[in-house]
Write a structure and sequence with these properties.
Strand content: under 5%
Number of domains: 1
Number of helices: 8
Largest sheet: none
Helix content: over 70%
Number of strands: 0
Structural class: mainly alpha
Order of helices and strands: HHHHHHHH
Length: 153
């Protein structure tokens, strides 16, 4: 199993939160304008911030958004997941800072475990709304394996 370093966990939580936020907006466009995921992503990019466009242009992130939009999750559920992933990241950063300040290895391990559980809960929710499978995007399975989600769900 890959070893997860603290910087990777924080980065992954940030990316997941941002992708979920974008996916919620894209899903709303799909529902409101009755367009395909591809067309909705293009429409979204036309009004997106520079940071959002960079994120979508990075390898496979637009596919990540489309995979989320192909699930049974509504835009409202995707928005809720975005808020939960953001809260995971905020808690992880706060717990890492407390652990760093305390200089206790046990606190660092606890912060890592809490971050893993939070990420795994988000992935499990996705599975629950996608016929028991992760959305069709390789990175989800990579995250599931890296965060040792089989242990947390």
């Amino acid at each position: 199993m890959p070893v997860l370093d603290p910087a990777t966990m924080g980065s992954t939580l940030t990316i997941m939160s941002s992708i979920l936020s974008i996916a919620a907006s894209v899903k709303q466009l799909m529902e409101r304008e009755r367009v395909s995921a591809n067309d909705a992503v293009d429409k979204y990019k036309a009004r997106a911030s520079a940071d959002e466009i960079l994120l979508l242009d990075e390898a496979k992130n637009a596919e990540h958004v489309k995979a989320l939009c192909s699930t049974t999750m509504t835009a409202a559920l995707l928005s809720q997941l975005h808020r939960e992933a953001q809260a995971c990241e905020d808690r992880y950063i706060a717990n890492r800072q407390k652990a760093f300040d305390s200089e206790r290895d046990a606190d660092l391990i606890s912060a890592k475990n809490q971050g893993e559980r939070c990420m795994c809960n988000t992935l499990k929710f996705m599975m629950d709304h996608n016929q028991g499978r992760l959305p069709d995007y390789d990175e989800y399975q990579n995250w599931f394996d890296t965060y040792n989600c089989i242990k947390h769900i």
